[in-house]
Amino acid sequence: MPKLYKASNFKYTPFDNFVDGDLEYLNNNNITFVDKAKDADIIISQNLKYLKPHFWRALFGKKFLIWTIEPRFDTHFTSEVKELFGLIKCHVMNIYTRDVFVSNVTFFTGIFGEHLHTLPQDFKLKTKKTIALMSYYKGLNSEPLIKNGVNIDLIGLRSKICIEGYKLGVVDVFGKGWPDGISKEDSRDGVYFYRKKELMADYQFNLCFENTATHNYMTEKIWDSILTYCLPIYYGKHTNAYELFPENSFIDYSKFDSPEALFQFIDNMSDAEYIERINKCITVYNTLCDKREELIKNGRGKVLENIVAKANAIVAN
Fold first, then answer.
1. Backbone angles phi, psi at 137, to 5 degrees
2. Is there a single domain that holds both residue 95 and residue 115?
3. Residues 2 and 31 sit within 8 Å (Cβ to Cβ)
4. How far is C-alpha 267 from the geometric centre of its chain's CA atoms?
5. What is the DSSP string of 219-249?
6. In the prediction, which pLDDT does 1 show?
7. Which of 174, 176, 178, 251 has the fewest other C-beta atoms within 10 Å?
8. Closest C-alpha to 95, from 10, 253, 229, 216
9. Which pLDDT tens digit goes with each residue over 213-261?
10. 122 and 88, same structural domain?
11. Which of helix, strand or coil describes residue 18?
12. How many CB atoms lie within 10 A of CB 201?
């Protein structure tokens, strides 16, 4: 019966019962949580920083696990890493090891509710201005994240697109931390989901890159865009987004050479092409609505199974 001690905050994760029933499942599968590190078999954290103060406990048989859904909390690409000159083994479960995000919709099945209506063929675009709802973080100075020789970080790239679009007057930016004058509002004020819907209602194109381009890592960003009838401007390269979406549905920035080329493409887009693209996106959404219960069972259920299997394997070794 593995006993786990949480060395860091696990808000919005199964370890904090973000979805009702997560902790019950773990407990029913003999995973328990303790209040003191000395009583644990495994010390867990969402990043290495909060594990390091406990490394001395390895002398007493304690094991260590990094588990996170955040792409920059942990950027290891392997399931085990060695620390302190190879003396300490840390097990890893993150978005890059593919045992946390087990599909493109793992943590966001709650988004799929009622079917959306497709746009009629007589629909007319009211604006070609793009909205971008995102924090700046380190923006243009975001550190590269190199995997197999390729930078899969998207924070720096999307920041560049936003700033260029702002200068051209074709992008409205909402979010924290941007250089003075760029952001129109800190869009995380209030109830964020509803505020996003209010803001996107005035636009028909939405720049909604993830933080990182990697397999299965697809968050609420693209779905929120579709729900508000904004055509997503997404980044498909190095991901498996096209396992869900057909070609020529969302606008895939990875197929453009520059922000200017993207904005020219949008400016030249006809009403007919917009309708075709957004309706393809809506069809994907509606198909997932029909599969919601199956997705919950095979998605989040698999995540919990992976946690149980990993905890048992760590304790057994």
1. 50, -125
2. no
3. yes
4. 29
5. -HHHHHHHHTTPEEEE--TTS-GGGTSPTTS
6. 87
7. 176
8. 216
9. 999 999 999 999 999 999 999 999 999 999 999 999 999 999 999 999 9
10. no
11. coil
12. 12
User: Which structural domain range is residue 30 located in?
Assistant: 3-102+299-316
Verify that 73 and 148 share a domain, yes or no. Answer: no
197 with 182, same domain? yes
What pLDDT score was predicted for residue 293?
87
pLDDT at residue 115 above 60? yes
Percent of the chain predicted with pLDDT > 90: 87
Rounded distance between C-alpha atoms, residue 176 and residue 137, angstroms:
8
Q: Which of 12, 53, 7, 55 is nearest to 33 (CA)?
A: 7
Interval 119-132 mean pLDDT = 97
Same domain, 222 and 311: no
β-strands 88-93, 80-83: how paired? antiparallel
Share of residues in the chain with pLDDT > 70 (%): 98
Q: Give, rounded to a whole angstrom, the gap between the first and last alpha carbons of the chain.
A: 14
CA distance 311 to 69: 17
CATH number at residue 217: 3.40.50.2000
Identify which of 153, 137, 157, 156 has the alpha carbon closest to the alpha carbon of residue 145: 153
pLDDT tens digits, one per residue of 178-225: 998 899 988 665 567 788 889 999 999 999 999 999 999 999 999 999
Looking up tokens 């924070």 gives: 155
- 187 and 227 in one domain? yes
